[in-house]
Amino acid sequence: MIILDCEQGTPEWFDGKLGRPSASGFKKIVTTKGDRSKTRNEYLYKLAGEMVTGESAESYSNGNMDRGVEREIESRQLYEIVNSVKVEQVGFCYFDEKKDFGCSPDGLVGTDGGFETKDAAPHIHIDRLENGWAQSQHFQQVQGCLYVTGRKWWDLVSYSRGFEPLTVRFERDEDFIKILAIEIRMFINDLHAIVEKYSIKEK
């Protein structure tokens, strides 16, 4: 793993992940069952567009996103207090020196763990507290983070201001990670093929 040491959401961060599949988008490549996602081509073309134009397709921000950044800080600080740990903030984590895919974790914990928080509206958070929080909702993202970083576990936190947080711990699913690794590599091969096929060649 190679870490891009910058603040998430900055121009350097957007440049560092430009045209690269990342864990938050892995669900667009493969389903929880290991099949190819129906949104694979859409994601493929989006990243190809970024590679050719050099412009990020994810620079849009709105009130909900800004609130999520603010609540992420609160959630991380509470998690640190409750668990007596220090969460290391990082920018973008590349799988290896090729730097062709990676993840943007909300934090790394010690040498074995990771941290991801999701800001939830009160009614959604209460439902999770009452009825549980299905791992399948963020399965590919979290397993992707585990794959990229080589970590053993990952804590996914549902946070809603004023409520007790809910934490779901993910362990590595090696069978899924093997499938994910293959599908990511094939996706990257297809990505470069499309860019090579359709971008204007310099004479």
Strand order in the sheet with the most strands: 2-5-6-7-8
Rg from alpha-carbon coordinates = 17 Å
How would a textbook summarize the main sheet? 5 strands, mixed
The CATH topology is Lambda Exonuclease, Chain A
Taken as a percent bin, the fraction of beta residues is 15-25%
Spell out the helices and strands N to C.
EHHHEEEEEHHEEH
What is the domain tally? 1
Characterise the protein shown here:
By secondary structure, the chain is an alpha+beta fold. It has a single domain, classed as Alpha-Beta Complex (Lambda Exonuclease, Chain A), CATH 3.90.320.10. It has helices spanning 11-17, 40-53, 63-83, 122-131, 139-149, 174-198; strands at residues 2-4, 87-88, 92-94, 102-103, 107-109, 113-119, 153-159, 166-171. The strands form two sheets. The protein has a five-stranded mixed beta sheet, sandwiched between helices. A hairpin with a 3-residue loop joins strand 5 (107-109) and strand 6. Helix 2 crosses helix 6 and helix 5 (139-149) packs across helix 6. The chain is globular.
Write the layout of secondary structure elements.
Elements lengths: L1 E3 L6 H7 L22 H14 L9 H21 L3 E2 L3 E3 L7 E2 L3 E3 L3 E7 L2 H10 L7 H11 L3 E7 L6 E6 L2 H25 L5
Parallel strand pairs: 6-7
Antiparallel strand pairs: 1-3, 2-5, 3-4, 5-6, 7-8
Give me a quick take on this structure.
This protein has helices at 11-17, 40-53, 63-83, 122-131, 139-149, 174-198; strands at 2-4, 87-88, 92-94, 102-103, 107-109, 113-119, 153-159, 166-171. With 203 residues, the protein is an alpha+beta fold. The protein has a five-stranded mixed sheet with strand order 2-5-6-7-8, sandwiched between helices.
